[in-house]
Amino acid sequence: MKLPITDEFLWEIFHLSQKAGDILFFLGFANRQEPLIPPSLSIRRIYEKRKAKQKFSNFIKYLAEKGYIKLKSLEPNQGFFITQKGMEKIFKIELGKTKKEKRKDGKWLMVVFDIPEKKRTLRDLFRENLQLLGFKFFQKSTWICPWDVLKEVQAIVQQYNLGKYVKIFLIEEISLKK
Q: Between 3.30.1490.10, 3.80.10.10, 3.30.70.240, 3.40.50.720, what CATH number should domain 98-171 receive?
């Protein structure tokens, strides 16, 4: 059974791990008293719990296979932590949720970059993040955007350590000659 990956699930894992104060947290099920209910409902509840646990277990394995989390055996439980690939996915989710408002001063952001070929993966990742923020391709390695997302762009540049390859400009107008 192939389980679909949901961005919300990864996002929830991240928030749970932050609340715990560490990326690593443990999975466990506490014993609790069941209320007295008719046997047929009790059996159904047990079946549904087992089915839900199996689906959840399959989903965790799926996330591990995709490289978003890494499983770790810790006696007596099993835990997991979010990998770099998982953190990048979470970062993209957060960028996608960014409210895009036009700048009040009417100016545009222009990002010009020259990331070397040996860092092609980072360059592609940077372009993808710019697109998520609403930037449009202007010309080779030059992207423009009317949205107020300067802080987000600076965070991306800092996160991927691209400061020496990226220049950010605030421009008043764009002139397109035909």
A: 3.30.70.240
